[in-house]
Design a protein that fits this description.
By secondary structure, this protein is mainly alpha-helical. It has 2 domains: 302 residues, no CATH class; 135 residues, no CATH class. Strand 1, helix 20 and strand 2 form a beta-alpha-beta unit. Helix 13 packs parallel to helix 15. The N and C termini lie far apart (72 Å).
Length: 527
């Protein structure tokens, strides 16, 4: 009986996070009228790309190469399930497995630090689950993005580095984190290079071998993009990061980044300051702090922020793991004081429903998923069920996934020509592309283009969310006729579409410009 009880307590942290995930999934399905949606539009880009990868094409539109994915590896993982009905849910399954892997390594870290053992099973479960929740490892599962894998590799690298520095032993997870991390997210490259620098101090030959193991797949992918006539970096990176602007004016970039990263900046200052006079002379602490500093500098200069805390979260996970290692004696003393431990536990639980900082995405996930359901999915429905033709957008994912018609991405993730045109500011590039691709309707956020749209584009209607904007890039999407002669037919399609929208979602018509269409589509309503 004791053996069974011990095994049940061993599995308790996993059972708790899976129960929380089931509750979160049920809440999302409830808020999305019985269908599951991710909390961001971006995973549907990966899904659409992975479908085409399975059929031998790298891009979102047939006959047109593009690199819209922010990850090299992730779409290929999803492509394995492309022919199956569960393909749409593959990102959720991958992320849940990655979260469980992060939890397993967290438990090992806590045990190494002397903070959790099976002799104190409740403490062990609460600490591990708390780490998962308050580093947003739980929250980002439902984004459907590759960040769950990135978080798992980040803590693998951090815990592997601790073992290496303490025992002069190379655990398998450290090489995997170094080599695979950049293949999952390019942002992992500074972490991998910093950890390679640490390895080089004690195992230079191993470091050189791992450097080649990391660099070769990255170079091979860039070479493949070049072969397809694309830039060496994915369009998803080039469309979002202005490298030339950063290098030309790094001070402005640092000022903006520091304003956005106040918590992470403060955490690093605490980590550094408390170690300076205590044990900075010891090589492990010094090298770990250098890794933290390299990650901080790279992310402050080139990284993004926001997006339900998915961008900067890997930094927090890494630093949190190092913080547990640095402060293990202090934390052990705190936990041994029953009153203080109880007070801290109650404060942490009380902060959860308030949406305090990191755990906030876990609280708002159902509402974020509803944003995607009410906006991007409805745009998908319009394109596939009502317009039956090409559509121009600037938020690409859900519209493109499982859509047989051409989708023109005006922002540039899914169209290299559009990215170059937008970033160059060339006159009439939008109208030229729309005419070239036979696109008569655009559903976009006009402020993404500073409201500088072609003068002949006619606004027809505005699709509005039913509630607060959480994860959608804008509270409303405006439908434009790119050719005024098509306005009448498009208005009738929009009228039929409006009759099928979810409760609370509004399609506000902006006037009936253009000649009327000769007939109303079957089942539609006249305006």
């Amino acid at each position: 009986m004791k053996v069974l009880t011990r095994w049940l307590w061993r599995l308790a942290p996993y059972a708790i996070v899976l129960l929380l995930a089931a509750i979160e999934t049920a809440a999302i399905v409830y808020f999305c009228d019985g269908k599951f949606f991710y909390t961001l539009d971006d995973p549907y880009i990966h899904l659409a790309l992975s479908d085409n990868i399975f059929h031998g094409h790298y891009g979102l539109n047939a006959g047109e190469f593009s690199s819209p994915s922010s990850s090299i590896l992730y779409p290929f993982l999803l492509a394995a399930t492309s022919p199956l009905w569960l393909h749409e849910y593959a990102p959720l399954a991958v992320n849940l497995l990655a979260m469980l892997a992060t939890l397993a390594m967290t438990l090992q870290l806590l045990a190494r630090a002397g903070l959790a053992s099976l002799d104190r099973p409740l403490r062990r479960a609460l600490l591990a689950v708390g780490f998962i929740v308050y580093t947003n490892t739980f929250g980002i599962v439902f984004t459907g993005m590759e960040h769950s894998l990135q978080f798992a590799l980040a803590i693998a690298g951090a815990t592997g580095l601790i073992v290496f520095l303490e025992e002069d032993r190379l655990p398998w997870r450290l090489p995997i984190a170094i080599v695979v991390g950049p293949l999952v997210r390019y942002e992992a490259l500074p972490m991998s290079l910093a950890m390679l620098g640490v390895l080089a101090t004690l195992r230079p030959r191993t470091a050189v071998a791992l450097l080649f193991g990391m660099a070769l797949p990255l170079a091979a992918f860039s070479a493949a993009l070049h072969y397809l006539g694309l830039p060496l970096l994915p369009g998803s990176i080039l469309a979002k990061v202005d490298f030339a602007g950063i290098l030309a004016n790094p001070r402005e970039r640092w000022e903006v980044a520091l304003r956005k990263a106040k918590f992470l900046e403060g955490l690093f200052v605490v980590l550094l300051a408390t170690q300076l006079f205590k044990s900075l002379r010891t090589i492990p602490v010094r090298l770990i702090l250098l890794v933290c500093l390299a990650m901080a500098a790279a992310h402050l200069l080139f990284g993004s922020y926001g997006g339900l805390f998915r961008y900067e979260g890997y930094v927090l996970v890494t630093w949190a793991a190092f913080a547990v290692y640095f402060y293990r004696r202090f934390l052990a003393a705190l936990l041994d004081n029953r009153r203080l431990a109880t007070a801290v536990t109650l404060a942490a639980v009380a902060a959860l429903p308030l949406g305090w900082f990191i755990n906030f995405p876990a609280i708002v996930n159902p509402l974020a998923a509803r944003n995607i359901y009410e906006q991007q999915y409805q745009m998908h429905r319009f394109a596939v069920d009502f317009h039956h033709g090409p559509l121009a957008v600037n938020d690409l994912g859900c519209v493109a996934y499982d859509n047989p018609y051409y989708v023109l991405d005006l922002f540039g993730l899914g169209s290299e020509t559009a990215r170059v045109g937008r970033q160059s500011g060339a006159p009439e590039w939008m109208q030229r592309l729309a005419a070239e691709k036979h696109v008569t309707v655009a559903a976009i956020y006009p402020n993404w283009f500073d409201n500088k749209l072609p003068p002949m584009w006619t606004p027809l209607a505005r699709l509005k969310l039913s509630g607060k904007k959480i994860s959608a890039a804008g509270a409303a999407v405006t439908f434009y006729a790119t050719d005024p002669a098509a306005s009448g037919a498009l208005l009738q399609e929009l009228a039929a579409f409006a009759a099928t929208l979810p409760a609370g979602v509004a399609l506000e018509f902006l006037g009936p410009p253009g000649p009327p269409a000769p007939a109303v589509p079957s089942g539609g309503l006249a305006v």
